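[AMINO ACID CHAIN]
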Amino acid sequence: MIKRIPRVALVLVTLILLTGSFLHAQQRFPKPEFETGYMQPSPTTPEPRAMALEYFDVLVLLAVLSLASWLAIRKRSRRGLLWLSVFSLIYFGFYRDGCICSIGAIQNVALSIFDSGYAISITALLFFVLPLLFALFFGRVFCASACPLGAIQDLLVIQPISIPSWIRKTLGFIPVIYLAVSVLFAATGSDFLICRYDPFVGIFRMDGPFLMIFLGITFLFLGMFYARPYCRIFCPYGVLLGWMSKFSKWHMSITPSECIRCKLCEDSCPFDAIEVPVEQSYRAPEVARKNLRRFILYIALIPLLTIVGGWIGAKSHVFMSRVHPDVYLAELMISNPELREDEENLDIQAFLESGDTFEQLVEQAAVIREKFRKGSMAMGGFVGLVLGITLMNQVVFRRREDYEPHKGDCFSCGRCMDYCPVEHHKSTVES
């Protein structure tokens, strides 16, 4: 008889592998040695919990976000942020089975807004709101140390590579679409896509379908070279965090004081989130006139893209509504009347045992399809609007004299601070 490996042993082995990995190179390039002189770097659903324990989870999240903000902005400690992320991985990931999750809470909020019969729990609402509030004031500290999905990827960044900017921007639009589709499906009561296709929940719970386990391992392997692939290519909550973070008053900075433009940090970020100083050529009269014309064009395109997106969304509502089980079942029974008496079809038999009539099912399916028509139109318009604003931002240049983290893209991980000689000099003086 084959004995099952105890759950605790699996968790310990996983953590040993993860923590062992960050003892090796996590940066795209090695950190400069300030002491010896700088060298040019080489190119299943968890068990329900008592309400008191759910509130305790919220208190833990609040404590982690607060500590992460202090470590990133005041203490400026990459090591502290790293170990805090390990704690979040253990607690919110393996101990809490990846649930409750701020990322998945998007769906709970959407369903509670559009379905009066659904009441969201206060803990789910707080898990959704708190990281956004902290991002508004302190940047994406949730991504730095509180998110178990980000932590498990971050610990396995071994040899990150950089890809062209246009590819990053194209891939960066996928989470916007994923966010819109996930909200639509949740608002119509069709499915919770984010939870269903969470690539790491199977790893956290040491159980799950083979396909999802394989998907999680694939993301982790890919993340050794393309840092945090799920966060950068798919995470819908990251879209909201990025928007909020752009307005943050206090945000992690590369240098504790004036930047000396030594360029040591330029390639230090495995997420390509460092913005270089804007060249003088951007402010040249001929370039400014060209950018102004493009800016006016993109401004004019925004309403057009919004309308076109809404039209495409409305046209796709029939296809998308089939995700809802009632719509799917109604279409199945209409197109194949003989299935209404099929005793081997579990969906048909479950419907017949519910006591509802076929006419009631069709009527309910029509109501749901109308919700999809309106929702798909809003979804398409939203995607078109974001696309137009994204294009417009490509020709908007803010005056920038220093190397700075991009507030929307920066995960506040603190890696870049280790490259700054001003940071090193400051810590040396203080010690």
Q: What stands out?
A: The first strand starts at residue 274 and ends at 275. Residues 1-25, 38-43 have pLDDT under 50 and may be disordered. Residues 180 and 379 are 6 Å apart (CA to CA). The chain has two domains: 7-31+47-256, 283-392.
